[in-house]
Amino acid sequence: MEELKNILARHGFSFKKKFGQNFLTDTNLLSAIVHDAGVDETVTVLEIGAGAGALTRELSRAAKKVVAYEIDASLRPVLAETLSGCENTEVVFGDILRADLPALETELGRYRVVANLPYYVTTPVVMRFLEETHGCDGLTVMVQEEVANRFCAQPGTAEYGAVTAAIALKGAARVTRKVPRAMFTPRPNVDSAVVRIDFEPGRIPVGSEEAYRAVVRCAFASRRKTLENNLMSAFRLPRERAKAALERAGIPDMARGETLSPQMLARLADVLQEEGVIQ
User: Fold this and answer.
1) Is 86 helix (H, G, I), strand (E, B) or coil?
2) Pick from 38, 157, 239, 255: CA 20 to 30 A from residue 101's CA?
3) How far out from the chain centre does Cα 171 lie?
């Protein structure tokens, strides 16, 4: 195929900073990302951020079906050209954060998400699929390297936070490859990494996912405070009741949220729900 930069120029496309547009063109790398995502002829893919269609085309070659969302409608003529002949691929011009996800999932059935996400939208997109999906089997996302480290962090590290704990409830996250900034057009200021998250229902037993999310928000509301103090602030508990809840969950009263494993956060969520603190 003609070089992507020539196709973009011919259609008068200009990169838009507000969309965080950085395109990949290396065919070997794109093929490797498709492999990382576990995409084969049995898999339906929801791609977020089709861009100029380079990754979309590689996904189309491997997948059963591809539905690709792209927020920038000015890429319509570019994608019409780069995805010519990709009969199993549909492009939807719209914002995935505003999409009717239940209706989309009815159309897709079981599917996997693959995305090259700009920084500004990474967490909202990942959290939407963690919290709202019923048909997604997992996500493979390209993100800034520091964000990838946060997704896969261990308790007690500086990178471990609320998004780490949210991901851990649903599945195992791992970095599959690092992608240097020189691989993108235009070249960003940071390196990236590909993270694969495989959803595993019931991975961490918890009575209520809503209660777990409430505890995670509480635990990381103020990293400098002890969990006991965060419990008092978040749920308006007297100190003795906060201490008692932590003791029931097997957590030291001076512990801080970032030191607790997702399993410990789940135990605390169950205790607080049993005691009626969280409905």
Assistant:
1) coil
2) 38
3) 11
How far CA 129 is from CA of 124, 125, 142, 213, in Å, comes to: 9, 7, 15, 14
- Between 11 and 246, the more confident residue is 246
d(CA 59, CA 65): 9
Distances, alpha carbon 162 to alpha carbons 37, 249, 266, in Å? 24, 19, 13
In this structure, of 10-24, 43-57, 177-191, the range with the lowest mean pLDDT score is 10-24
pTM: predicted TM-score of the whole model, two decimal places: 0.92
Domains within the chain, CATH numbers bracketed? 4-199 (3.40.50.150), 209-274 (1.10.8.100)
| Token pair 């997702």: residue | 262
Task: For residue 23, give the H/E element and its range.
Answer: strand 23-24
> What pLDDT digit, counting tens, does each position of 46-105 carry?
999 999 999 999 999 999 999 999 999 999 999 999 999 999 999 999 999 999 999 999
Nearest to 142 by CA among 43, 61, 2, 26: 26
pLDDT at 23 over 90: no
Strands 23-24 and 184-185: antiparallel
Structure tokens at 138: 């997992």
